[in-house]
Amino acid sequence: MIELHICLEPFAGKERDFEALYRDAYVPGISGQAGFRRTTLLKRRDALREYQIHITFESEPLRLKWVASREHAATWPKVEALCARISWAGFDTVAGTAGA
């Protein structure tokens, strides 16, 4: 499995727009992709505008298919337009547990 952590800082006053875009466009767009496992939007507790999107796919080639999809092309530029800063890091899953 591959996991991507995307760090984002929406422009001041755009936090609710960013959260709505994630919920209403990003999640529906990514959810139907081959190999998709999960996505989570996190907001740092002690910061006003620090967010992370975590996405998990079965493999990097399947994640790259999402990046090349029309759904990603329609959604990601809208995410970028709301954010002052975006960075990311990719991880290979080497161990984990299943929740109850």
How many strands appear in the DSSP assignment? 4
CATH architectural grouping: 2-Layer Sandwich
Task: State the CATH class.
Answer: Alpha Beta
Please state how the strands of the largest beta sheet are arranged side by side.
2-3-1-4
What series of H and E elements makes up the topology? EHEEHHE
Instruction: Tell me the CATH topology.
Output: Alpha-Beta Plaits
Strand content: 25-35%
- Which percent range fits the helix content? 25-40%
Shape: globular
Major β-sheet annotation: 4 strands, antiparallel
What's the N-to-C terminus distance? 20 Å
**Count of structural domains:** 1
Radius of gyration: 14 Å
Kindly report the average pLDDT value: 94
Low-confidence sequence ranges: none
Q: Return the structural class.
A: alpha+beta
The tally of helices reads 3
Fold and architecture overview:
- The chain is α+β, with helices and mostly antiparallel strands and 100 residues long.
- The protein has one domain: 2-Layer Sandwich (Alpha-Beta Plaits).
- 38% of the residues lie in helices and 34% in strands.
- The chain has helices spanning 15-31, 60-67, 70-82; strands at residues 2-10, 36-43, 51-57, 83-92.
- The longest helix has 17 residues, at 15-31.
- It is globular and about 35 Å long.
- The relative contact order is 0.30.
- The model has no long low-confidence stretch (mean pLDDT 94).
Task: Note the topology.
Blueprint lengths: L1 E9 L4 H17 L4 E8 L7 E7 L2 H8 L2 H13 E10 L8
Antiparallel strand pairs: 1-3, 1-4, 2-3
Helix pairs in contact: 1-3
TL;DR?
The chain contains 3 helices and 4 strands; from the N terminus they run E-H-E-E-H-H-E. By secondary structure, it is of the alpha+beta class.
